[in-house]
Amino acid sequence: SRLGEFDPDNLGAITDPLLFSIASYTMGQxxxxxxxxxxxxxxxxxxxxxNEFYSYGAYTFASIFxxxxxxxEFPPGMYEExxxxxxxxxxxxxxxxxxxxxxxxxxxxxxxxFVFGIFAHAVTLRVLTKTRAWFALATFLxxxxxxxxxxxxxxxxxxxxxxxxxxxxxxxxxxxxxxRTRKRRISVPQNVVPExxxxx
Length: 200
Hints:
Blueprint: H1 12-26, H2 28-40, H3 62-67, E1 83-85, E2 89-91, H4 95-129, H5 134-149, H6 160-185, H7 194-199
Antiparallel strand pairs: 1-2
């Protein structure tokens, strides 16, 4: 439908771009990152990538750096290069691991993932064991989004993640206060037998 043409005698004109788009949008980022990783460890790669290693969080936490006014200037889409392979796929999305490797190197990335895993487990444990842990619950939701979007990019490059977490925390607190206020208003009178309350 985006091509705006249909020729029953030449279906390849439609199916070829369609298959290219499907490959690019569904799995292109995996192969693009594999090409970048080959470049990183010194193996042959289809693309020549920028050597911007050890940028200390500028890629992974771009929104925080930007809010502090010390952010790095990124081109649209964050990366100038595209990952590609012949006529199979082309994408400028490289998973969040490319930014992580740029920021901390390969070994530093593994260390970051280990520390982040401990943090994620601590937040999850607090949500499961503490009542009214609204901040932990809002953080837990942000961590989930970070993990589930990691196959595309780091969600911490956008400011909306922190805003969403703050609004979620505010809504949880407001809901808890309203619930407690409502619970106080609906109190059972002293002379009512519990069986009568259950029956009503």
